[in-house]
Write a structure and sequence with these properties.
Layout (H helix, E strand, L loop, with lengths): L2 H4 L2 E2 L5 E5 L2 E5 L4 E5 L4 E6 L2 E6 L4 H22 L2 E8 L4 E5 L2 E5 L6 E4 L4 E6 L2 E6 L2 H14 L9 E4 L18
Antiparallel strand pairs: 1-6, 2-3, 3-4, 5-6, 7-12, 7-13, 8-9, 9-10, 11-12
Length: about 180
């Protein structure tokens, strides 16, 4: 049995939850999200709580039970407080600029790398810190991963784009052998 799936999800004040068939809509102060739930999994509202359950116990439904509960919890957290990921750019001449609906990265290539920003995400740049924020945790994390993938940090000098606070394992470079003779 899933320990995560058993836990009911509390619905905070100001959040409206509607279940229409297999579609769940959550509306809160930061925005609105909706998700299609698998037919094997059932969600119901009781006493300002969302309870996730299943009808027939199989290996697949047990796996989907905890996953569905976590996804619904993230939706509620997103519409109430939102999600944010920070990335740090390290390297001489490396910089990022937001122009309209594009993030332009100058990270040592011969050309600037342009990334399209989804309309439901907000990206801001402050010196060498890129902040990706939004209501949907999956989209925020995906956009942060796409930005990092443009120039991952290299292990010798640590140049590149990394998550804020991430530790890069550094390697020792080549040592020059002194001339003896």
């Amino acid at each position: 049995m899933s320990r995560i799936g058993k836990k009911p999800i509390p619905i905070p004040e100001g959040v409206e939850v509607k279940i229409e068939g297999n579609t769940l809509r959550i509306k809160g102060p930061k925005g609105e999200l909706q998700r299609e739930i698998r037919p094997e999994i059932k969600a119901e509202i009781k006493d300002k709580m969302i309870i996730v359950s299943f009808e027939k116990e199989t290996k697949k439904t047990k796996a989907l039970w905890g996953l569905t509960r976590s996804l619904l919890f993230n939706m509620i957290e997103g519409v109430t407080s939102g999600f944010e990921k920070k990335l740090e750019i390290q390297g001489i001449g490396f910089r990022a600029i937001v122009e309209g609906d594009e993030l332009i990265l100058h990270v040592g290539y011969t050309h600037p790398v342009k990334l399209k920003i989804s309309p439901d995400l907000k990206i801001s740049v402050d010196k060498n810190i890129i902040t990706v924020s939004g209501v949907n945790k999956e989209k925020v994390s995906q956009m942060a991963a796409v930005i990092k993938r443009v120039k991952p940090p290299e292990p010798y000098k640590g140049k590149g784009i990394k998550y804020f606070g991430e530790q890069i394992r550094r390697k020792v470079g080549k040592k020059v052998v002194g001339a003896t003779g």
